[in-house]
Amino acid sequence: PKSLVSKGVALTSTLTVFETFTPGRPAPPGLDVLTPSLQDSFKRAQDRVASGAPQSVYRTLFPKAMALERAFVKAGGLLIAGTDPTGSGGVVPGFADQRQIELLVEAGFTPLEAIAIGTSNGAKYLGRDARIGTIATGKQADLVVLDGNPAASIGDIRRVETVFKN
Fold first, then answer.
1. How far apart are CA 55 and CA 134, in angstroms?
2. pLDDT per residue as tens digits for the range 129-141
């Protein structure tokens, strides 16, 4: 990670994608909003993952990816979150953004660190953090009101009550 950090390279965490390839992981959130044919397609993909479970390389790679991301940040690297909704269809936009933050907490980041990775770090990487990425006077923002406290329980990030645009 130090060589990446010294070159100013940012990493994008796509744990939501790799979770869908890892046997024994929970079903991703948001599958119920997919069309029936997409749900069936994802179910077939999950069945393939489960059938290859004993020899799956992702059993080893998924936790290593989490550890790499922690080491990268510890070395001073800029980690950003990206859900990359590709592959077998289990990475549903919106739902996957919330899951990504939960996975960062599972990887060892604090809830507040994970939220920053999912919000302000992307704005920093894009050079737009003077206008977006955090809440401050004069900045453009969408606000999400949650019924809970994700700093105390990251699962509360899914308890969306209201969204204010702009």
1. 43
2. 999 999 999 999 9
